[in-house]
Amino acid sequence: MKKIRRGILGRLIPGLSSLTKRGAAGWITIIGLVLVVSIVLMTLLAPWISPHNPIAIDSTHVASPPSAEYPLGTNQVGQDMLSRLFWGGGTMLQVALLSVLICVMIGLPIGLLSSYAGGNLDKASSLVMDSIYAFPGLVLAIAIAATLGRGVVNMAISIGVVYVPSYFRVVRSQVLTIKELTYTEAAKAAGARRRTILGRYILPNVLPSVVVVATVNFADAILTAAGLTFIGLGVEKSIPDWGYDLTDGRALLASGAWWVITFPGIMIVLLALGFTLIGEGLSEILNPRLEQ
Amino acid sequence: MGLRSYIITRLLLTIPMIMLLLSIVFLIVRVLPGDPVLLHFEKFGTPEAIAEMRHNLGLDKPLVVQYFEYLAGLLRGDFGKSMQDYSSVGQQVFSAFPATLELAIFSMFIAVVLGVLLGVRAAKTYNSVQDHSLRAFGIITYAIPVFFLGMIFQLIFGIYLHWLPTGGRIFPTMQPSGLTIGSLHFSTGLYTIDSLLEGNLYKFGQALRYLALPSLTLGLVLCGIFLRLTRTNMLETLRHDYVSAARARGLREGTVTYGYALRTAFLPVLTMMGLQFATLLGGAILTETTFSWPGLGRYIVDRINFRDYTAIQGAVVFFGILVAFVSLAVDILYAFLDPRIRL
Question: How far is B144 from chain A (nearest CA, A)?
Answer without folding.
Answer: 5
